[in-house]
Specification:
This protein is of the alpha+beta class. It is built from three helices and three strands, in the order ααββαβ. The chain has one domain. Strands 1-2-3 form a three-stranded mixed sheet.
């Protein structure tokens, strides 16, 4: 989960850097428009530039939203795992917690039904969790 979050964050940074380079945000060179080029391009060129700028803006906004959701999901997973690690009745190392859009999936081996219920309760009581899916299995012989 952390690796996927890191990849997403790296992708957003690269997209912003590429957009900044092509839009001239980090350029030290100041260029003035050539009057003959403006005259030949006319309104069609200006309209096309606005369209391209709008497309870039939309894509950047979508990437930022996706990054925010991934960070939010990562934070929820971290909070739940921390709660489990601090709880004496739950063996956190045996449980895997995955979060997608506020839906938490808990999987792994539990030693008892009480441990299962406590792990699920810890996840449910965490702010931002919309739903908890139980994919835990009871250890054999218990």
């Amino acid at each position: 989960m952390i690796r996927a979050l890191f990849r997403l964050l790296l992708l957003v940074i690269v997209l912003v850097a590429v957009a900044g380079f092509f839009l001239g945000w980090w350029s030290n060179e100041v260029t003035l428009p050539d009057s003959s080029a403006v005259a030949t391009a006319g309104r069609a060129g200006a309209e096309r530039a606005k369209e391209v700028g709008s497309e870039i803006s939309d894509k950047t906004a979508a990437a930022a939203k996706q990054a925010k959701e991934a960070i939010s999901d990562g934070a929820l997973t971290t909070k739940i795992k921390a709660k489990m690690a601090l709880d004496d009745t739950v063996k956190a190392l045996n449980l895997n917690v995955d979060t997608v859009n506020g839906v938490v999936t808990i999987s792994g081996l539990v030693r008892s039904k009480a441990e299962r219920e406590r792990a699920l309760a810890l996840a449910r009581e965490t702010d931002g969790v919309r739903q908890v899916i139980d994919r835990t299995t009871l250890e054999a012989g218990r």
